Amino acid sequence: MFSEQLLNRLANAESVAILTGAGVSAESGVPTFRDPGGLWEQFRPEELANFDAFMRNPVLVSSWYAYRREIIRSVEPNPGHYAIAEMETLFDDFTLITQNVDNLHRRAGSIRVVELHGNIMRNYCLDCRREYKDMPDHDKDTAPRCTECGGLIRPDVVWFGELLPQDAVREAELATRRADVFFSVGTSAIVYPAAGLPHTAREHGAYVVEINPCDTDFTPYAHEVIRGPSGTVMPRLVETVKRMKNTA
Ligand code: BJW
Ligand code: ZN
Predict the structure, then answer these.
(1) Do 78 and 135 form a contact (C-beta atoms < 8 A)?
(2) Residues enclosing ligand 1, CB less than 6 A?
(3) Hey, whose CA ends up nearest to atom 32 of ligand 1?
(4) Could you tell me the domains of the chain?
(5) What is the spatial order of strands in the sheet that 181-185 belongs to?
(6) Cα distance between residue 151 and residue 143, in whole Å
(7) Is the bond preceding 165 in cis, omega lying within 30 degrees of 0?
């Protein structure tokens, strides 16, 4: 399943980075954005995940997030998340960069997690910036509002057209440039700037591996493509690295 070249690179790697996307959480039961049967299939993510859509129809956008929060609360990390958390213990310099907002990597035990697109469990008032972990009670046909000032409460995630958290971007960029081996796992690699990271890794000399059951925009540029679900591939990869390190 893994090439000699990948295993050699991993054996000599000082720095490893993994970029993850929604596909890593698919096997937990969290729908992806763009696959058939994905999140609210009748809407494209661009139509809901932007500030104008929220201001135009806060009830619709808030109920999309409430629906997703409910799913995320009811699911567990899968073997892919756990394997990635274990990978962190096998390399001195390891960075997990995720586009996911679902917190499942941390729940699986990953410690060093760079969240590029925020976290769906955090929310804040647009007017006074008060933070909310749990939304104040509100009717299904109204949007959640701040108990202090009555302002609209939005999720602390990054919408289209918005800047990503700059500390996270800086950390992701540095880890990507340092990486000897870079994995792009479970992402369609179409949303920038995250989708630029595997290219950056390649330009800086990393061996770049894509793990995904399907082709993505990055596939033609990957040094190696492993076709399969992350919940199967990642645990095998960890076992292989562990065996390799034990026999070295
Ligand atoms: C499995 C699997 C299994 C299934 N195992 N795999 C440069 C070029 C072109 C455009 C731009 C550019 N720079 C900026 C832009 C504009 C825009 C953009 O990229 N647009 C593209 C659509 C073209 N980017 C932005 O606006 C970003 N901001 C920005 O750049 O600011 C500066 C700026 C401002 C103004 C003008 C210009 C620049 C912000 C992007 C924010 C993205 N936000 C979202 C929502 C987050 C909140 C929320 O969750 O609601 O992030 S959109 C959505 O897409 C979410 C995801 O993180 C992101 C990526 O999706 P992902 O994770 O790849 O999921 P899918 O569904 O697409 O793919 C799933 C994959 O899994 C598939 O490949 C499956 O095959 C695979 N899979 N089962 C492994 N078991
Ligand atoms: Zn407020």
Answers:
(1) no
(2) 21-23, 26-27, 32-35, 38, 45, 49, 99, 101, 117, 157-163, 186-188, 190-193, 212-214, 216, 229-231
(3) 163
(4) 1-30+76-117+160-248 (3.40.50.1220)
(5) 113-115, 93-98, 15-20, 181-185, 207-211, 224-226
(6) 10
(7) no
Query: Of the residues 192, 209, 215, 234, which should be mutated to test ligand 1's pocket, given the most ligand atoms within 8 Å of the CB?
Result: 192
Its pTM stands at 0.97
| pLDDT tens track for 10-44 | 999 999 999 999 999 999 999 999 887 765 677 78
Q: State yes or no: is 81 an active-site residue.
A: no
Residue 62: what pLDDT?
95
Tell me the CA end-to-end span of the chain in Å, nearest whole number: 20
Average pLDDT for 211-234: 98
